Amino acid sequence: MKVSAYVGGIGVLGPGLNNWPQAAAVLTGRQAYVPAATALPSPAMLPPAERRRTGRVVKVALGVALEATSSAGADAAQIASVFSSSGSDGHICHEICQALALPTREVSPTRFSNSVHNVASGYWSIATGSFAPSNVLCAFDASFGAGLLESMIQTSVDKRPVLLVAYDTEYPPPLHLKRPIPDALGVAMLFTPEKGTRSLARIEATVTAEACDSMADPQLEALRRAIPAARALPLLLLLAAGKGGRTLLEYLDVSRIAVQVDTCS
Amino acid sequence: MSAMTPLLLKEFTASSCLGVGADATLHALIAQRSGLKRCEFESVNIDTYVGEVPDVDAQRLPANLQKFNCRNNRLAELALQQDGFLESVQAAACRWGRRRVGVFIGTSTSGILQTELAYRARDPDSGVLPPGFEYATTHNTFSVADYVRQRCRLEGPAVAVSSACASSAKVFGSARRMIEAGLIDAALVGGTDSLCLTTLYGFHSLQLSSTAPCRPFDVARDGISIGEAAAFAVLERLPDDLQGGSVLLLGVGESSDAYHMSAPHPEGQGAKRAMHAALTAASLEPSDVDYINLHGTGTPSNDRAESQAITSIFGPTTPCSSTKGATGHTLGAAGALEAMICALSIKNGLMPGGVHTTRIDPTLTAHYIRENRRAAIRRVLSNSFGFGGTNCSLIFGAAG
Predict the structure, then answer these.
(1) What is the per-residue burial (b if ≥16 Cβ within 10 Å, else e) of B322-339?
(2) Please, which residues 9-38 of chain A have a Cβ atom closer than 8 Å to chain B?
(3) Confidence class of residue B330 from pLDDT cuts 50, 70 and 90?
(4) B201 vs A100: CB contact, 8 Å cut-off?
(5) Alpha helix locations (H) across B252-378?
(6) Cβ(B256)–Cβ(B270) under 8 Å?
């Protein structure tokens, strides 16, 4: 059984990837990939009090969510969203665990509120004034695949636009040794049930047991394997190439997601 | 949001401080008992009450799944063993095929207690965590969903939903959409959250936990009591030979508050939208709902906002209560636990009165019941709201 949707806008932020047009140029080989620390924008869309409290996980998620909705010309306040990541804010988690290991056990109330897995979803709703449903998922290294399925299914079953925001950030030491995500990376895609004037492609997804695809470029392949949200790279490559085709994305140990991309002319 | 196709809640189980398994839970509800006790959990030194499930740490995981060993997965294992649930899941896997059964589990903190303990055992020189510490299969949010998936040998799509205290209500939405899309035929849905220091000290720092057993809708209510629970159900397409009295999932409604990270919208705007959406999905009018199981945490602001939202939709006569005085607020497991309490309500004609509440706040206009009522119950609505302003309402009903 397959599920399909139209891609109306894309957002990308990651190491050496500053936005979707530049990432597309890198993926298609029109521009060399130059690894660099992820440049995270300050979330100007949030009120100053909230902006001060946001960590890297909120910055990367809101950054790509804004790029995808703006480029699609969509009203973010009306759009349901799916946020999927392999962890919450690693720095806050570290600070809380460190505080709890001390005899005083003083946990900051703001840090605690921002420690929830749905922190980025909450700030997105506040920033856009959106009452629309927002789902928040985790499937460890399969988090991009889980988010892709959920958002495409929501688009087709509920017949409404859905924004997928998949993102991960690093843990500081000592958790970094146990979960060595090197930097922040986010991918957002706006799906619509019908073709629109700005639709880039129609994509169709199905769960399969076939082997997953890798990236031909060794540096991009290393990135794909290092950060769970970067498991999206083979799909982004197809979308960037603008030619259509089929790719197999990493998902659970027993399954992959096959995606057929047909570009909108 | 349009009408949804009803689904069958084929089998279910629930374990909390109120009782291990559905029968124990039902009998405690009938007796209006509470499972809350003064907090003696781990080394916690906070003056509060908790809903701790006895003997969680005596639970053993199967030998091939030892890397998942943490309190949260031990609690999940304990719950899976009740009510013949593991056998029910295998029967579903036989009916539909292992690849056609999805796993959707809500949790807020998963096995983070394991990391809290590991931080106390860091190497004094290097600061590294102890060698036996497993991040992926304990701390990570997906751990409990992955554990349940592997324990039940299911091969369909699997995911953890983690939207704070709405997590395991929202699993019903994800599961029903995936069934409707045809990717799966059945789903193992549920939630598991266990006591940990992050939530006990975190809610304490926000001054949201009470020093007494929580008293939802009481004039003197002053916060939550944190609990732990694991609750699961098999959700599947309606069979041709649907039996009268079966429990159905009729509606799911979801919304966001767009207001604040840790405080509800004061007039319950998001809560109203979620309840309206659930009624629309179920093609029901407010008057069709016989009983409402409240989010009812016992904080002044939650109960005020929720009461306003309910009165504006249902008026002041629909009986409602919070079972959190009995179970504590089981956070990411609350949605699933209270869904199973709703299923017990429908099957047994029981509206459970809210315990610990002695004097209902006269400014709260929703019709809060403190005594159990026995009556035929056709349809029940359950609310779950969470940090980040995330809301989910579920409607269950009796078939036939």
Answers:
(1) bbbbbbbbbbbbbbbbbb
(2) none
(3) very high
(4) yes
(5) 269-282, 300-314, 324-327, 334-348
(6) yes
